[in-house]
Amino acid sequence: VQAIGEIRDMTRKANGAILEIMLSTDDKKSQELQTTLQEAAQRANEKLQFIEKLPLDDNARTLLAKSYAALSKYREARKEVLSLAAQHKNSEAFALYSAQVEPLALTFIGDLQELSNYYVTLSEQTNKASEDYFARAMIIVVSIFLLACLLLIGSGIAIAKNITVPLTAMVELCRTFAAGDFRAQRQVAQR
User: Fold this and answer.
1) 3 state SS of 69
2) pLDDT along the chain (191 residues), means of 10
3) Are 60 and 48 in contact (CB under 8 A)?
4) Is the distance from CB of 111 to CB of 63 less than 8 angstroms?
5) Handedness of CA 110, 112, 114, 116 (dihedral sign)
6) CB environment 93-112: b (16+ within 10 A), e (fewer)
7) Percent helix, strand and coil across the chain, each rounded to 5?
8) Residue 12 burial (CB count, 10 A)
9) 34: exposed, middle or buried (C-beta count within 10 Å: 0-12, 13-18, 19+)?
10) How many other CB atoms sit within 10 Å of the CB of residue 17?
11) Cα–Cα distance for residue pair 151/99, rounded to 1 Å
């Protein structure tokens, strides 16, 4: 999504450079703007190649192909405008820019936006699924923790009874002996 946003920004920057070229009468400035256009096109190509290398599903490939088609038409129309501007036929260049380049640029940007929106939707779906899995995992972990606590408490109570019942019997027997009654007997279970 970030790469797509950068391509859209570069396209807008390129359109600004085209307008400046049409308005400029300075050949040096026009050459600098041509260089800016070439650099923006190169960076856009790099970003598009980066997007192509990503694992794309069929819908994303279709949207990317649609974007490439719009980009190709945009660049062809842009060449004509730049050619007219180089010949200082600025009114004709601007008319062609307004009639073809700007609408094609908007189509290209719109196609990129559609691809970006598709990825945002996929990201939201993936995030929702991850949150659902995390919630289930938390329920399982908490359930296991509570079950372990219950087992520990139950084991502790059972162990305590097994220790305290015979000890209580021995204490009672000792009290009886201490009272002077040596006739008392208790059965102590042995294990």
Assistant:
1) helix
2) 83 85 80 86 87 86 90 90 84 88 90 88 91 96 96 94 87 87 66 51
3) no
4) yes
5) negative
6) bbebbeebbbebbebbbebb
7) 85, 0, 15
8) 13
9) middle
10) 22
11) 78
Place of tokens 């800016």: 36
Task: Give the distance, in angstroms, between the CA of residue 92 and the centroid of all CA atoms in the same chain.
Answer: 45
At residue 124, what is the residue type? E
Rounded to 10 degrees, the C-alpha dihedral 101/4/7/72 comes to -40
Q: Tokens at residue 53, please?
A: 């290398």
CA distance 136 to 139: 5
Phi, psi angle pair for 84, to nearest 5°: -65, -40
Instruction: Work out the angle at residue 47's Cα, subtended by the Cα atoms of residues 45 and 50, and round it to the nearest 5 degrees.
Output: 110
CB 121, CB 70: distance < 8 Å: no
CA 106 – CA 67 distance, rounded (Å): 11
What contacts 29, CB < 8 A, 6 or more positions away?
A: 20
